[in-house]
Amino acid sequence: MTTRAVRAAAIAALAGLGLAGCAMQETSPEPVSVFSLSRGDCFSTDAEHTAAFVTPCSEPHLFEVTDVHPVEGDAFPGDEALQALTDELCPAAFADYTGGAPAASDSWAAMGFAPGEAGWDEQDDREIVCVVTPGDGAETSDSAQGVPSDYPTPEGTP
Fold it and tell me: What is the pLDDT of residues 77-93, one digit of tens each?
């Protein structure tokens, strides 16, 4: 191979790497299970709220994990029981994470993701994932962690 051919091959290889790098930056993140997330993860979901697309909190997202609570037991407890547990756990997780009560905030809302029976049985999803989401339903590029508390902390919350 001549020097000119080697140089042309090297330039072509570098150009190919540059194009691959650009393509990688333009693709969306790979989806993961909502039930594989950790406190502090920021993400958006698919329409069924089963796949999470994790992103840095400085990038647009709809949800931020405030806590993950394991659910005990082998048998699926039922949708109503999981909803009651979510309603009990997630407001306290919101208060701990943000420094304020969800009922007193216009900017943020508390909610949670609980597994359905199929996820419980087939994917071994056994967690309630508590999140904070913008109160207006629009994506944000901010984190809610430790937001300035212009609203009171609920009694009994540290």
Answer: 999 999 999 999 999 99
Minimal CA–CA distance to 42: which of 29, 24, 23? Answer: 29
Single-letter code of the amino acid located at 15? A
> Which phi and psi angles does 154 have, rounded to 5°?
-60, 150
How far, CA to CA in Å, does 94 sit from each of 12, 21, 46, 117?
Answer: 52, 38, 23, 26
Q: Is 74 helix (H, G, I), strand (E, B) or coil?
A: coil
Q: How far apart are CA 90 and CA 101, in angstroms?
A: 11
What phi, psi does 134 have (nearest 5°)? -55, 135
User: CB of 39 within 8 A of CB of 67?
Assistant: yes
Residue 65 belongs to what H/E stretch? Answer: strand 63-70
The sign of the dihedral angle between the CA atoms of 56, 61, 67, 68 is negative
The rounded mean pLDDT for the chain is: 78
Residue 142 CB contacts under 8 Å (≥ 6 apart), including other chains? 57
